[in-house]
Specification:
By secondary structure, this protein is of the alpha+beta class. 36% of the residues lie in helices and 18% in strands.
Length: 318
Amino acid sequence: MADELPRTAKWGFRVCAACACLALAAAIFNPLVALIQAAAQTAFAWGIRRRHAWAAFAAAGLWLTLLPLLPLRVEIRAADQWLAVAILAAMGSLMLASGFSLWPDPAARTGAAPWIALLVLWVAGNVCFRPFRQPSISMEPKILAGDQFFVETSTWTLGRAPKRDEILVFRYPIDGRQTYVKRVAGIPGDRIAIRHGRLIRNGAEVVEPWAVHQAGSPDPYGFNFPSEPGFGVKAPAEEMLRANVHGGEVVVPAGEYFVLGDNRDDSFDSRYWGFVRRADIIGSPTLVYASYDEAPGARAGSMPTVRHLRWARLFKVL
C-alpha cells in the first residue's frame, strides 16, 4: 500500500495522483485530451501504489520524451520553454527516482510489458501527431475558427510532397513562431491566377467546391490576382510579383508552394505574403478533437469551456 512505499515512490504516487486530479479539472476546457491525460496519470499512480517499478519508469518516459519535442512548439515563447524544460526534467527525474527506489524488490520488476506498451503509444502519438488550434475563419467552412485538431507530421518529416488542393499546416514564412493552415493552390511549376474570384491554374479554371466568397466588397487585389498590390501586401509577396509573374500568371518556383484559404475573401494567404517553403511545412490536419464557439460576451483571451463545445464537430475527419 502507499504507506509501505519507499519515500521517493510515495512522492511519485502523490504527484501522479495530483496530475490526474488536475487533468480531470481541466476537462471543463478540453474533455477528450484531459480525460486521456487523467487516465494515463491514474494508471501510473495505481502502478506505483502497487509497487510496479515499470509504472514509474513509464511515467518518467512520458515526461522526458516531451523534452525534445519542445523546440517544435514554435508558439511557445523562449522564456516559457525554459520553464517547461525545468518542469518536465523535474517530473521525469522524480519518476525515475521512484522507479529505482522500488527496483530492489524483485516483485517490482515484473509486469513490464503493459507499461512499455503504454509508453510506446504515448511516444508514437506525440511524434506522429501535434495539436493545433484554428484561430481564424480563413478556412471556413471546412475548418472553423475554434476547431482544435491533430496534425499528422511523421510522413512530412520523411519527405512527403504536397499535392494540389491538399490542406497544410505550416510555419508562417514571415514569422516562424506563428502557424497557419491553408490549402495548396499551386505546386512547383504551376501557373496561378485568380480572375473574378475564380482560381485559374495552368490556364484552366479549377472547380473548388470548398471555396466560399463572403457577401460585400472583396479586395480588388485578391479578387483579380496578380494585379497592382494594395494594402497589407508584405515584402515577400511584392518580390513574388516582381520575380515570378509571367504572362499575367504567378509561376510557382521549385521547392515552394502557393496556398489559399477556403474563405477566399477573408484569408491572409500567399497572395499577401508569398510562397510557402517546403521546409516550413509541418503536416496535414487529420481529426478534430475539440471545437469551441466564441463565448458570448467573453473577455478577449478568455478560455472557452465545455458549455461552448460544438459537439457535432468532435471526431470530424478533415
